[in-house]
């Protein structure tokens, strides 16, 4: 489904991605974790064709990414700017569906279904700015779900929802993946979440980002918020990922090659995961 | 109910000013400030004492008021449509934007009245002159603001369009136009006032009909009350246009005010 | 780098425009009698720089604008402060403002020609009238933006309301007032020129009228060119001053009004 080889990207002199290699199979749910500002969004934007990387190769469904691939949806990290404030929630969700054909009615029902899935059927007629941050984020998720892409990229999609909703949305993603066979790449700063949701957890080093860990999550299916999190394997994996993210030497086999060299510098500059760190401001040409 | 009453109560200043004006001008026998009652009487007699079939407009009103209004609305609306379209087209291309911005800024800075003498030698006097003057006066601020608005559309809006494969046409009508609309409306708001100025001025200088022309005639005949009726009419026109425009803007930009409040 | 490219494109745009106009005139597509050749206008503009008559007329217009603006600031800003700090004053005067503001200033021109013996005074009076509105509106807008917490802090330390206005309200409203001045300046120029065109007297408008009655279109357009340049300069100088003085404050332009 997705093949990334030696992907590098520099913003001017600043190197954000330092040779990322990653392969995602069809139907897989891969979580990407890494310290704040390490280049997770940059990686995602290169996969999505929104950014032309300065080096390396990205193949989606075997084809090199030049523009945004057809069957792809993104849930942006900056939810407040990814919904159009002049459209109602329902219009926001149904706008992209025109591309899928069908009449207005079928688009509207598809939008409503997606809004029900994220628990917001009552917000359909409201405007995004009438909703809380977490609700807006759910609308953005609903928009991507309604679009039914083959590959879904999610950039910290549960960043600003409360714990309960977060668990519900995690289960929703799992259920959607199961029922539709969608391939999902999910970026998160929450280590528990990455282990709970993912089939695989990919750990990035601080920038220039490289893959320092790639762990397969083997937990009993279907996953359950309580039981899974108590599972000894879960606890073990979580500790493993935590060590990798903090740049410590890991016992896991996958991280052995690259984990050590990035360890020293990562420790010096506390790679505390910081969900609040916003994306860089939009690059608007100056007047 | 209570709020309506208190709102009306806060309008007390208007009758007070009118009465004070009436009393003081009568007492002072001011030549150039006729009492409101006199102005009102003349207003009725001159403009609004016509037959009911003509919505009470007199021939005088039909002869001067309607052409003014027609040219104002046609010139303003036509110029705005073209300027918005051109501004958005230019704004979507960084190169065109850079190339044309200095020129547009310059034309925006030229006081449009200065060109009326030149226009007059090209169009003669009459409707073509008024239309040219209004169109020129209105176009530049609207063009400039539309260009600005279309240029600085949030990058993530456009990326969202790209990701979800929203067609070019829809991108334009459902995303770029609304995103640029607060700016566009700022330009339109200025343009309403400019259109009025250009209408009056071009009627002063090169016309044989219209409110401005009638006003200048009254002034030269020392017919002060008639002159005042024209002031009142133009004032009402300005007020109504402004109020209608603000109402329209409020309606279209509800989302903008809402979104800003929560920032 | 990008700025240089941008400037280059702008220069190319202006040069291209001039060349196209020149070519259209020379090939007769635009009758050069109706619109003189770009080269003719430019040489005419260069010549105007040494034309004492033109320069003194420009001086007249600019000084009327400056005087009118100063008077308008003296009237509108205190009034705006009063309206913005005392709610009763604001609520009483609001209706009057809302009714007077949309009256196009030029509608008052014939009246002003009666009232003021010298055309100069009438012109300044109209400039004051027009410039007052953007200043007033922006002052009000700025005062509405004042942080109530800052005011209360000051009150809690025992400062009187005069001090509150001086120490908090005025500084926070200042960027908005400056924006008002910039808007008012461009409006003032338009009104000044209009009055000169209609009522005569002295000023750029009169210079243009004379040139056009002598059928010197090149001179008319050259004078217009300079006026546009002056307008552009004044506006960008004020905008620059605004952003320099109030760097701490991303001034949102208030309502523009004519
Ligand atoms: N447009 C840009 N121009 C210059 N530098 C950028 C740009 N976008 C990102 N960067 C830099 O690249 C690095 C990686 O950014 P990126 O947004 O990919 O990080 P991230 O891992 O998504 O961070 P977070 O977890 O905070 O979202 C950051 O150090 C950032 O400062
Ligand atoms: Mg990010």
Automatic annotation (TrEMBL), chain A:
This is ABC transporter. It comes from Streptosporangium pseudovulgare. InterPro entries: AAA+_ATPase, ABC_transporter-like_ATP-bd, ABC_transporter-like_CS, ABC_transporter_ATP-bind, P-loop_NTPase. It holds the Pfam family ABC_tran. Residues 2-231 form the ABC transporter domain. Residues 247-287 are annotated as: Disordered. Residues 251-263 have a biased composition (Low complexity). SMART domains: AAA.
From TrEMBL, chain B:
Keywords: Cell membrane, Membrane, Transmembrane, Transmembrane helix, Transport. InterPro entries: MetI-like (IPR000515), MetI-like_sf (IPR035906). Residues 65-245 form the ABC transmembrane type-1 domain. It is found in: Cell membrane. It holds the Pfam family BPD_transp_1. It comes from the Bacteria. The gene is ssuC. This is Nitrate ABC transporter permease. It is a multi-pass membrane protein. Belongs to the binding-protein-dependent transport system permease family. The chain crosses the membrane at residues 69-94, 114-143, 184-206, 226-248.
From TrEMBL, chain C:
The keyword Cytoplasm does not apply. Gene3D superfamilies: MetI-like (1.10.3720.10). InterPro entries: MetI-like, MetI-like_sf. Keywords: Cell membrane, Membrane, Transmembrane, Transmembrane helix, Transport. It holds the Pfam family BPD_transp_1. It is found in: Cell membrane. CDD domains: TM_PBP2. It comes from the Bacteria. It is a multi-pass membrane protein. The chain crosses the membrane at residues 58-79, 99-118, 176-199, 219-238. Residues 58-238 form the ABC transmembrane type-1 domain. The keyword DNA damage does not apply. Belongs to the binding-protein-dependent transport system permease family. This is Nitrate ABC transporter permease.
């Amino acid at each position: 489904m997705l093949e990334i080889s030696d992907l590098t990207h520099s913003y001017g002199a600043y190197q954000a991605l330092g040779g990322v290699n990653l392969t995602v199979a069809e139907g897989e749910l891969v979580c990407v974790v890494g310290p704040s500002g390490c280049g997770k969004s940059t990686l995602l934007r290169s996969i999505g064709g929104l950014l032309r990387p300065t080096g390396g190769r990205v193949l989606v469904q075997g084809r090199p990414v030049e523009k945004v691939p057809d069957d792809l949806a993104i849930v942006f990290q900056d939810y407040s700017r990814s919904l159009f404030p002049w459209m109602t929630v329902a219009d926001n969700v149904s706008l992209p569906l025109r591309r899928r054909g069908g009449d207005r009615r079928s688009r509207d029902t598809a939008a409503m279904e997606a809004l029900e899935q994220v628990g917001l059927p009552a917000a359909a007629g409201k405007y995004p700015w009438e909703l809380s941050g977490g609700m807006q984020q759910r609308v953005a998720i609903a928009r991507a779900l309604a679009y039914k892409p083959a590959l879904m990229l999610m950039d910290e999609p549960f960043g600003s929802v409360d714990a309960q909703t977060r668990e519900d949305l995690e289960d929703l993603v799992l259920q959607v993946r199961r029922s539709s066979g969608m391939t999902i790449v999910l970026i998160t700063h929450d280590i528990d979440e990455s282990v709970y949701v993912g089939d695989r957890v990919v750990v990035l080093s601080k920038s220039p980002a490289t893959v320092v860990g790639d762990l397969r999550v083997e937990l009993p299916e279907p996953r359950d918020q309580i039981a899974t999190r108590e599972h000894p394997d879960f606890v073990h994996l979580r500790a493993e990922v935590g060590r990798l993210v903090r740049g410590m030497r890991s016992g896991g086999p996958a991280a052995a090659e690259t984990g050590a060299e990035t360890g020293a510098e990562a420790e010096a500059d506390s790679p505390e995961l910081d969900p609040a760190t916003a994306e860089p401001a939009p690059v608007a040409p100056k007047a | 109910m209570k709020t309506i009453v208190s709102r009306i109560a806060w309008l007390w200043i208007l009758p007070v000013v009118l009465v004070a004006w009436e009393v003081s001008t009568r007492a002072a026998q001011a030549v150039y400030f006729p009492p409101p009652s006199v102005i009102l009487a003349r207003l009725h007699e001159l403009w609004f004492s016509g037959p009911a079939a003509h919505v009470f407009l007199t021939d005088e009103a039909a002869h001067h008021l309607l052409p003014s209004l027609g040219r104002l609305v046609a010139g303003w609306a036509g110029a705005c449509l073209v300027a918005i379209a051109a501004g958005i087209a230019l704004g979507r291309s960084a190169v065109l934007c850079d190339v044309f911005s200095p020129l547009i800024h310059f034309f925006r800075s030229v006081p449009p009245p200065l060109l009326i003498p030149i226009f007059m030698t090209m169009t003669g006097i009459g409707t073509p002159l008024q239309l040219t003057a209004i169109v020129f006066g209105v176009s530049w601020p609207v063009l400039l603001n539309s260009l600005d608005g279309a240029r600085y559309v949030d990058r993530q809006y456009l990326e969202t369009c790209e990701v979800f494969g929203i067609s070019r046409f829809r991108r334009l009508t459902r995303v770029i136009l609304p995103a640029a609309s607060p700016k566009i409306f700022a330009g339109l708001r200025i343009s309403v006032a400019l259109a009025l100025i250009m209408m009056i001025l071009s009627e002063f200088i090169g016309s044989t009909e219209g409110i401005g022309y009638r006003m200048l005639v009254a002034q030269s005949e020392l017919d002060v009350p008639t002159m005042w009726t024209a002031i009142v009419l133009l004032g009402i026109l300005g007020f109504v246009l402004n109020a209608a425009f603000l109402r329209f803007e409020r309606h279209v930009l509800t989302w903008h005010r809402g979104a800003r409040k929560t920032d | 780098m990008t700025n240089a490219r941008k400037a280059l494109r702008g220069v190319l745009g202006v040069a291209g425009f001039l060349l196209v106009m020149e070519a259209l005139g020379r090939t007769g597509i635009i009758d050069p009698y109706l619109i003189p050749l770009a080269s003719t206008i430019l040489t005419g503009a260069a010549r105007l720089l040494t034309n004492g008559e033109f320069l003194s007329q420009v001086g007249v217009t600019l000084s009327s604008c400056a005087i009118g603006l100063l008077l308008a600031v003296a009237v509108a800003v205190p009034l705006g402060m009063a309206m913005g700090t005392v709610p009763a004053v604001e609520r009483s005067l609001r209706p009057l403002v809302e009714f007077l503001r949309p009256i196009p200033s030029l509608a008052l021109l014939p009246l002003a020609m009666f009232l003021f013996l010298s055309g100069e005074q009438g012109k300044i009076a109209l400039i004051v009238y027009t410039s007052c509105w953007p200043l007033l509106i922006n002052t009000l807008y700025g005062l509405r933006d004042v942080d109530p917490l800052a005011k209360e802090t000051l009150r809690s330390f025992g400062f009187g309301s005069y001090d509150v206005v001086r120490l908090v309200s005025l500084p926070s409203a200042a960027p908005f007032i400056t924006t008002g001045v910039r808007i008012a300046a461009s409006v003032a120029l338009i009104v000044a020129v209009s009055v000169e065109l209609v009522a005569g007297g002295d000023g750029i408008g009169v210079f243009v009228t004379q040139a056009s009655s002598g059928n010197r279109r090149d001179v008319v357009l050259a004078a217009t060119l300079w006026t546009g340049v002056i307008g552009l300069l004044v506006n960008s100088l004020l905008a620059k001053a605004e952003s320099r003085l109030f760097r701490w404050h991303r001034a949102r332009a208030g309502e523009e009004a004519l």
